[in-house]
Amino acid sequence: MGSIQENENGRRGGGEEVILGVDGGATSTVCVCVPGDISHPLPILGRAITACTNHNSVGEPEARSMLKQVMLKALSEAGSKVSDVRAICLGVSGVNHPKDEQRLLCWLREIFPSHVKMYVHNDAVVALASGTMGKLKGCVLIAGTGSISYGCTEDGRQARASGAGPVLGDWGSGYGIAALALTAVMKAHDGRGAQTLLTRCILDSLSLSSPDEIIEWTYADPSWARIAALVPIVVSCAEAGDPVAHEILNTAVYELALSVKAVVRKLMLAGEDGKGSFPFVMVGGVLEANGKWDIGQEVINAILQTYAGAYPVRPKVEPAIGAALLALNLMLKEMEA
Question: Which residues belong to any copy of the ATPase BadF/BadG/BcrA/BcrD type domain (predicted)?
């Protein structure tokens, strides 16, 4: 996904106000720098990328260090300075409680001037904004390395489901799918489960000779993204007719759809009769077509069976731009208040 409008060379002279939009997922973090004038057509002036900034994964000191680096790099790419920043919107995985937001806001105050408007949210919020052009209304499903469903109503009510990490509930995520596949291989090896094509394909992919070696491979570096990278193998095995792989993907579709339905029910996004319309934004690599097995389309079908008024949205801009658009809209509301 690209910018709304690219300028000619991606740079400009300093002194003009800018806005920073940040999307920090479980795998990578992207920061974009856009003009601070809300009437501007919003070109991307600078863009930078770094690794995961979820404090639950990398620790708070490392998360803050990388967030600072990625923001400063985007400003540098734009030819801007810290003093040029008008507003910042961070959407970061691991921000699950008001105290998480407050810690980040206090830290940002140490870096940026007091006049800067600051907004901190979970990354699901800016993902929703990427599909609704900065407006918080509807539901979003993120399914990449991790997974989460989030929804918001016009009057500001919010709800979420899943998104509690690989131990407590990223069901249907890339990590969740791959973890089930690795478990299936170990069960088959032990004689506790059905034999599966996943065994040979995963061993070949990892250059291992025996399922016993999977144990060492897994715990040598149990990073979420490293394990989630096995998802294409699960998809290819399902396409080849392997029933175990097929069931794993069916389980993922069920869990992802279930999390969306939970949010829709909590917020009554479809109205009391369940027939109302609402945008359903879909973000993340798991939801993109992968060969003949299109998990995203299967999730859409499952949602529409219950909520016929839901209309799926595949964002045309990346979540970091959604963060910048959200900042613009929030500033506009404050100006109108």
Answer: 20-327
